[in-house]
Amino acid sequence: MKSVSAGGLALGLTALVQAGLRFPCSTLTFQRLDPAGQPDALPSSHVHHIVGGNAFNATMTGDVGERATCTTCQMSEDFSNYWTATLYFKDPNNGSYHRVTPVPVQPLLGGSQGAVGGLTVYYSQFDLSRDNLAQQPIKAFPPGFRMIVGDPGATSKEHAGLSYQCMQGGGNRGRITNEMPQQPCPGGIFTTHHFPPCWDGKNLDSVDHKSHMFNTVTSEGFTNAPACPASHPVRVPQVAFETVWDTTKFNHLWTSGAPNPFVWSFEGAASGYGTHADYLFGWKGDSLQRAMDKSECFYDGCGSITKQAMSVANQCTVENFVGEETDGWLTEIPGWGSMPMS
Question: Which keywords does this chain's UniProt record carry (predicted)?
């Protein structure tokens, strides 16, 4: 899939793609925790939507895959955590806020029905139609690895791969944009976060949580990233998240011609340039490497990874470490006014 337009992904999944992993993860929790961008902070500056393993906490070091005992992801050996900021609706009449619910990304592939909220995760080797392993081997991340993409303080486009689509319904995802949709979306707001594909091969993290990675992607969609530079020579899986935010239940409150009333949990404006995501590796043993070594296999690594029923995944939980309400009608978003970090 070289770019995504209306209905483009559905066509790709049914007819073209043959390489990489694609699987759903149900929601694990909504909390102000951020062990990648603000480790040790309890709470962190803003609310995140978090999926994955139950080792999630304010501080996460070492081999997460060995500590977690369950995961909300379909791949039962994936105890990684994936998280983004949370979308809120701001009532234009009284200024109150309500958290927007994420819903499973469609289409769900075979055996993945039953996800609750959450997001869809991709690990691609080259692009979604081939893997090119003979020329470009992929190295899985090591235990303790983490990275972030995007910047909550951004006021203009940061790089390709951080995008929105105003879903029209009936499989039509709408045009890719870098800004938050400025009109009601009949099918909700679709967000995508693509992570850099090049690693320095040494550091599990960096001071800014980005410098150990290098982004060579210059176009939208699931395209092959250009060659990695000498400073970051290791090609790792191209990780991406997709989330559908069910904004439809608030569309009747969006007055015609009024500004977009949807805001992220870290910002007061609705431009959307600050969209960002965090990743903390937690695959057990060599399970991810086994999948990345499989040629021309899509979705489940040709049986190299054990899948679990989403009904089992949905039972995985963590405690409310922060102890604050993030849902319902609120007078302010939790952490509003704090310095955004990730």
Answer: Signal
